[in-house]
Specification:
heterodimer, A: alpha+beta, Naphthalene 1,2-dioxygenase Alpha Subunit, Chain A, domain 1, seven-stranded antiparallel beta sheet, B: alpha+beta, Nuclear Transport Factor 2, Chain: A, 3 helices
Amino acid sequence: MYDPEPSSGRRVAWPSNGISEVPFRTYTDQDTYVREQERIFKGDTWHYLCLEAELTAAGDFVSTTVGEVSVLVTRDAERTVNAFVNRCIHRGNLLCMGRQGNVKKFSCMYHGWTYDLTGQLTGVAFEQGVQGKGGMAPEFRKEEHRLQKLRVEVLGGIVFGTFSDKVAGLEDWLGADVVRGLTRVMNRAPTLLGRNTQILPNNWKLYIENVKDTYHASILHLFLTTFKINKLNMPGGIFINPDGGNHYSFAKLDYEAETAAYKDEGIRAESDFRLQDRSVVESVDEYGDGVSVQILTVFPGMVLQQVRNTIAVRVIRPRGVDRTELEWIHLGFEDDDEEMTERRLRQGNLIGPAGYVAMEDGFIGGFVQRALQYNDEGAGVVMMGGHEAESQTFKASESAIRGFWKHYRALMGE
Amino acid sequence: MTDRDEQAVRIGVQELSGLYAEIIDEDRLEEWPDLFVDPCRYQIISHSNHEAGMRQGVMYAATRGMLLDRVFTLRQANLYEPHRYRHVVGPYRFKSIERDTAIVHTHFIVARIMHSGETTLFATGRYLDDIDISGPDYKFRERIVVIDSDQIDTLLAIPI
């Protein structure tokens, strides 16, 4: 939470100008956390706001946060998507308590000030006073006041917003590679299968680093190796945008060979460890390109994943220097039949707070945070695959993590 | 069904529910799949997802094999900080009792006890049960675990 003490101006010291050594204090320092809210979350970055499918009718709204800041996203009568800060301009009250719904206008419960769906102030209770007495000062003009607006763009059915007036348009900012990765997964109209929020006992950066870390997967997550899944994985790669912060990694799978191998194994049963019910991993090549895993990140806190037939957006929301909300937004598509939905639900056991492949990611950041408690001098080493943040054709690399720090340092001025 | 038979069903259902909690809390998870018919439906889902008619939860099993895999994976393939639960179950609401089927909604709270001793309220909610009462051992056809909160602290390893 916000530190009421005046900032000491102390900055976290980086050991070099590079991005392959990361000071541990960046995960524990309160001043850094406050600065991140300004420079990163309210800075030159684009953020996930909601799905366009959640705003189908005029008046539909979604309440969300960008960093710690409460934001409303609406569809107005002209069918335009708007986003603005959820804070009445009068006395700063939270304007809308609801998480989602349909309204004609927003009315502040405190003094009844009202706003239209674009965030424009339209009504001030007792503006002319009562029986000719009181009322707003004569120079006050409703037309001159509106809720602080965010720029909004939609890509692949996902609504993005930014506080920045000067950051590039969404697609330029994402970079061509990441746009390609995003629109590959979101290539048709999505439907919402459900959502879950995990509370992580760690700094938000530890989670996004974990997502970008292709190195840990086969070591920390024993499920795939225990059951000898993904043994037919074919080489993948990592694409990183020039700023470094946005990326995607992918791996292909020979789906047909996998199906054949399982049938064969069923006869020979040579492995000690076999799944009793294979439906949790039985997947189809729904994109027709053989890619079975694609993990995409949008700086600072959005993930779009395809793990076999599980499609999900993950949103990372900082809630204090050592607390993070991770929301899983599970997706299907409008053209899914019942068989496909059931397949996605069964494979859903792989991901989320109870995920066979994702469970360890829930606690590992908390373990790091615990180890750093009053013990945060020095710097971590991020040198797998070199010192730079370039796209690579192999996955045993920390290149994408370095990309995060490249973008982070540029925005933070560190 | 006579009043006397119905009373026996109520007692049998409460026994099954008590056994379920005991098996989990006393770390006898290997017995957990035996409490379900095959195929079955076991799901942990948040109240808001369930209310909205959305189907994705946090844990799902549609067969006895999937239940066995969940237990095996907990024991062999997943890493998590050691902890256990304590379930408190009830009140029970018997929605309908027919010859082969009891539909029962039951409240629960689950405390999580970490290996360090730290004890927290981990989950509250309702079990929405469809119970096969045709045989001598009652079994779940369906147990939908509707948890009240959307938020899960750190991770959910052990079934609720």
